[in-house]
Specification:
170 residues; mainly alpha; Rna Polymerase Sigma Factor, Chain: A; Arc Repressor Mutant, subunit A; 2 domains; two-stranded antiparallel sheet; 68% helix
Length: 170
Amino acid sequence: MTALEFTYNINRVSKTLRPFAMRLTRDSEDANDLLQDTMLKAFTNREKYTDGTNLKAWLYTIMKNTFITNYQRMMRKNTFIDTTDNLHYINSSDNSTHNEAYSSFAMDDITTAIESLESAYKVPFMMHFRGFKYHEIAAKLEIPIGTVKNRIHIARKELKHLLRVYSHLD
């Protein structure tokens, strides 16, 4: 695809990106900036686009990834490192005290919920929770990787059901 054809196709599809940018940013100015960043990245990386694939999906992916990157950058900018001996990360906009008793009750409920899972679901879930990758879990348990993913999904679904009392805490 020539640069002219690429430009024509991008301009044709770009009109559908603005509503997606508005849903992500919830601000007109930020949406315009995100759209502009997306177009710039698409033009500068046009050699990475495979001719014949879905251009619209490619642009949506660029936009989503750009939004996530910008959001993470903003969060890092708003977080500073406490250089005292404790070496804690402190978010400057979040100064609140939490009731430790509530946390203790929640942890007890979470532990009880996890313990109530069937072993077939609990073992892969806990291995994944501890940082094992899907393929590592599959190899260790000698089951297909699809089964591992399914069991972890079912465990999460069951835990979500068992801990639904905490769903209002977002």
